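note to self — DONT lose this again. spent like an hour looking for the file last time. sequence + predicted structure for the chain T wanted, 1209 res
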Amino acid sequence: MTTHISARVAWHDDGWNGCICKDPAANSFCVGAQSYPGQHIAEKRSLDWEKKVAGRQSKDLDRIPPCCYSFNAFGLVEAVAEAEPPIWFKDGSQIRRWEMPPATVCVWPYGVMYGDDVKTGGRFDYEQRLANAREFFDAIQPDKSLIFYYANYSNPFSEDEAKRYALVGLSRVKTLGEELFYEGCSDAVKEKYGGGFVWQRAITSHYPDQGFRLPYHVYRDRPEILDRIALFPENPRLCKYAIRHFEDDDALGLVESFLRVVRELQDLGDSTEDWSVRARWLNELISELWRHRGLLPGMTAVLELLSLHDAIPLFKQKALAGKEVETRDALFALVEGKVDKVSGLKLDVTEIKSVRRQWKLRTKDEKRLLREVLPRFALRDDQLNKILSVGRAQNSITAALDAIADNPYILSEQYQGDDPDDFIPWGTIDRGMIPSPELGGEALAETDDGRRFRALLVDALRHEESHVFAPADAVIATVNRRLSVLPEWKRFAFNERFLDADEELIREAVEIREEDKRTYLYLREAFEDERLLEEKLRFLVGGPDIALRTPLTKGVWEGFLHDPQSVLARKAAKEYRAAIEKQVAACQRVFVRPIGVLAGEAGTGKTTVIRALIKAIKRGHGAGSSVIALAPTGKAADRIREVVEKDEALRGRVEVATIHSFLAKLGWLNNNMTFKRSGGRVEEGYATYILDESSMLELALTATFFRAVRWPTVQRLILVGDPNQLPPIGRGRLFADIIEFVKEQAPESIATLEHNLRQLVGRLSGGATGIIDLAQCYLHDRSEGPKNEDITTAAEKMLQRVQLGGDVAPDLRVIYWRDQADLSRVLLERMALDLAEDVRSRGEEPNKELKDIWWQAHENNSKPAYFQLLSPYRGEFFGVEEINRICQEHIRGQRPAGTNALGGVMLFDKVIQIRNRPKSWPIWGWNHNDRCMEAIEIFNGQIGFVWPHLFDKQKWQTPFFRLEKFRVAFDRREGYSVGYGKGLGKDGNGQWIEPESVEENLELAYAISIHKAQGSEFERVYVVVPKSKQALLSTELFYTAITRARRHCTLLVEQDVTSLLGMRRLEASRLRRINSSLFTFRPVPEALLTVGGWYEDGRIHQTLADVVVRSKSEVIIANMLFERDIPFRYEQPLFAPDGTFYLPDFTINWRGADFFWEHVGMLHRDDYRAHWEKKREWYERFFKKRLLITEESADLSKQADEIIRRNFT
């Protein structure tokens, strides 16, 4: 048994080759919040210096770079590293420098620095910390241990909603560097801090003789290749705390995954390494690791569970001698009373009696598992405890113990520990079921075993995070790719016939569905969740109208909805009245239905309508009528609560909560926050449920909510949302599917708010309608009838204005940028100008420096929701982390540097809470009104400003002040400030408050991701739109981004308008690319799932015509072109020599010439007819005799056929 290690490295853009990156500015990941070590590189990096020495080796540098601990991981020459003594030494201790041999990294076991054993009297015991570190490093065996290098979340593959460690290489440990101590430490420091040891230690590998790095640096600009070679650990727990120990079984899993990538590189023809040599080495490693792993890697955990602690050293010793099976049998003979002693094991009689008694208390199935099954798997003793527990359902195990014994693969299908990363990978079970034949043990499964196949299907379907189902052939192909790189004796190629052969077994966990001669697969839970929702929603849709105790006349509704203080009521009474009448009609329609759907784009007054509906419930059914408003996120629930509490008639009379907290109260959540399938209480006390932000509803959450309510006792359910926003993080597209179903089955139950009040207010204030006008170009507007030319024309006109850049409207500006330096310059300049303008608008004179103007514009940091930068990405120079770094440096006028920051956050920074702190896990805040500490809720996505902690208000400006704590004043938490750090005082019960980690709770928020911004609004918004990286860009993402702005939006667009044109294409919609089957089976055409390059070319596959063209009329034309084998592109931007552009419906290349087919739909407005005539003249001027025209009519097919025969035969 060998101990192996993971080692964290800071991201390097040239392969950790011991050189400064060739383009240092492009590497924004090394200074990210999740780099290594911590904030060190961000605090110490000098980008100007790095640019001067770009590409140079360490020996040619005049200083040591702050990435020195990891940049030489695969370097071939020596380097030097250094560490500054901690600021709290305060004794003149000196910087410690040391030599780094080639292929060396420095690491430190942070995980053993913070355990309970290192605290004495509330203080850290540094002698114990040093002892723990020594024990950790002593377990590493030079020339035996493997080292797996990985980058933390600050890497090019990690995003806010998909944080991933990236494996970058592996090798074998060659030597451990010496233990390091700072020089010049005083006796007092040595005594207090364990001799003054450095929290780094060098580990040198055998690279390049053994090991390799993955060539990410070669393919940084080739995302299609990076997708194939990017490697993420199946078990992310191996990559925690900078460096971790793990055993042979985990190492086997990692080596097998590296072998898969090596095969990909061979297929790609990559020449950075001789990959055949590396593949041979990996196969040799696999054989070696199997020998070290043995047949029973879980036996030590079983012995721990049985309280046979003293038997563990004996078992390890015998296992090394190849006698693990015999030793297991002997130990169980002792436990079962068949023998009284085991050679080499000393146990007193009392211990033996206790162990035997506990064994007798176990059930037959527990005994079978412990004796025959669980020793085969490399599981921890805490995992075994959860598996055997009668409460194992709390960890998502619904199977009985006998079923697990018969099919141990169930553990990989069901087990979920208390932490999100505590699960049992499929490979862990498979290695126990089919061990290496070299070991001579019995296999519990054949390579084609149906249990094995099912577990692989479950694992593959779990990774389909947004789809409810997936095509069977695609899933099986994924399974076979995974098996193809395993050792030959474990390989097998499954096919669809196995679904039939093992159907009964497979259907226990996977639903099999046949549609149109193709087979599709669901996770059993997902299939059942959809069917449950169908049943409950059909019940609601089929219910009778609701009888009211008190009539609600049109006048009553108008009273609820009309706001006499509105600017619209004063300046545009007629238009406002028309909008209110539409809202009244919407309310009247849905209010008497058991289910009502209220859909509206940004600015249509959904929040006002919610308030009116609640008032109507209280009036129509009596003040005591129970109503609860729920939302998927804490931030959204907060917003509803704010609306309700501002209305005197509703204050304190409406319950508002998150769906999660509603379910938790009823007992539908497990301790690990997974959902129960049954067993919770069923609520029957509310007459009306309102679900806000319904576009964010994902399948599992919503199904659990429907299980938790007794629907026959409910009068109405009202779903409110904007169907154009981002689809949920999770499975399905529920809101869109429900809208389609209700439109078809009960159109009287759906109301769409079409009058945009925000747009109307904008017109009254000088034409400030640019935000809404542009947002309407990105609505889900596909027509099921004739083509509506009004929509197309409005979008074309708006996008032509956007193309010109500058001030498109009083509320919308577009700025195009070229490169990294240009983006930084433009961003900072524009921010300063806009903030100054807002200061002047209040009658004040703005200061000259950005940091001072920022303070003025935010009214002394009292308005967190005034200004916000948004980016689709976390990494890259245009991502959230780099923009935050730039803003922090210029707005605060300094960089984090040890004493002035906690977790990279300084006083007066803008921050965002990144994890939920609900009622079940509140955070302590100071109530400034009642002057006491109070446990309060703070939710993921809430934004605020950092202030000095009240304990430090007399200290923070003094020399040598060291920041150890601060408080945050959050938006929507007026009167409270929340403490972070340590030394936060005492709670309401007089107990000391536990420290609150800044890194685990907060991030900088000058810039945030668009996902984080969903559900929030800001006065000024700046949206960064890159062209060079498009993976996350979508119609919904862009719509969500620009509609976060209440007053002004600035778009910062890379190079030109084409990325904006691309996001408007129907195939750019994420919603359209989700497989769902709620009410209607809706598989996404395979060509749409794999479509690439749609930003520029518009080529579409024949199977996509029904999906990606905007009207039924155009589908007819597209299909006629397909039938005649005439190639075309749809809505490909056509640029004239003068730079102007239009979007022809169809571009047809025929015999070397391009022709442009425009299908003219219904034109209802004079200005749109004028636009069409102008467009026609443009074609005549620049593309003479190449314009083809059809018009909306009953004989469209005849018109189209005539054009095709005349021009393309």
